[in-house]
């Protein structure tokens, strides 16, 4: 609907939604819910990038903030490729006409998603792989911070 009609945010909460480890979608039909969410994400990506567009399952999961499948591969090139795909999709979204399109906010949201996902990755990768990832991604500011932190920890021992 948001692709065709103007949408707005209301300042008041109209629905409270409680989610716990005992929620139905977590217990009874977790596999079905996970599969439906994955398929919807792929449909959304293809809407912007074209019907032939494909990503690895691990990369789609990563874009949904589930980094574990990608981290388990222990392949920095796959992680970098996934972040490059996030940039690619962002530009496709920006280029697609939409009544609700706000390019500044789209880019801002993508940057927040990128930084948050990267921070999750850095926590799960070992120091050497984290440094390699930051170098491959050109994130030299973050790399410098990580190195300073590591040096400070080493000197305190």
Give your account of this protein's structure:
This protein is mainly α. The chain has a domain at 31-125. Helices cover 68% and strands 0% of the residues. It has eight helices and no strands. It has helices at residues 24-27, 30-49, 57-63, 68-73, 76-95, 103-124, 127-137, 140-156. Helix 3 crosses helix 5 (76-95) and helix 7 (127-137) packs antiparallel against helix 8 (140-156). The protein is globular and about 55 Å long. 13% of the residues are buried.
Poorly predicted regions are none
| Radius of gyration (Å) | 19 Å
- Would you tell me the structural class of the helices and strands? mainly alpha
Q: Please summarize the sheet with the most strands.
A: none
Number of helices: 8
Q: What percent strand? A: under 5%
Based on Cα principal axes, name the global outline: globular
The end-to-end span amounts to 58 Å
Extended strand count = 0
User: What are the secondary-structure elements, in order, as H or E?
Assistant: HHHHHHHH
Could you name the key traits of this structure?
single chain, 157 residues, mainly alpha, 8 helices, globular
Task: Provide a quick synopsis of the model.
The chain has 157 residues and is mainly α.
Topology:
Blueprint: H1 24-27, H2 30-49, H3 57-63, H4 68-73, H5 76-95, H6 103-124, H7 127-137, H8 140-156
Helix pairs in contact: 3-5, 5-6, 5-7, 7-8
């Amino acid at each position: 609907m948001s692709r065709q009609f103007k949408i707005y945010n209301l300042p008041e909460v109209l629905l409270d939604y409680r989610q716990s480890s005992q929620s139905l979608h977590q217990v009874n039909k977790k596999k079905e819910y996970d599969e439906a969410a994955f398929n919807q994400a792929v449909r959304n990506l293809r809407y912007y990038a074209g019907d032939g567009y494909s990503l690895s399952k691990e990369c789609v999961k990563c874009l949904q903030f589930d980094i574990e499948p990608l981290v388990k591969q222990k392949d920095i090139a796959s992680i970098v490729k996934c972040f490059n795909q996030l940039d690619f999709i962002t530009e496709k979204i920006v280029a697609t006409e939409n009544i609700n399109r706000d390019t500044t906010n789209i880019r801002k949201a993508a940057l927040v998603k990128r930084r948050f996902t990267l921070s999750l990755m850095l926590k799960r990768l070992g120091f050497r792989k984290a440094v390699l990832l930051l170098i491959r991604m050109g994130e030299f500011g973050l790399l410098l911070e990580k190195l300073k932190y590591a040096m400070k920890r080493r000197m305190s021992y």
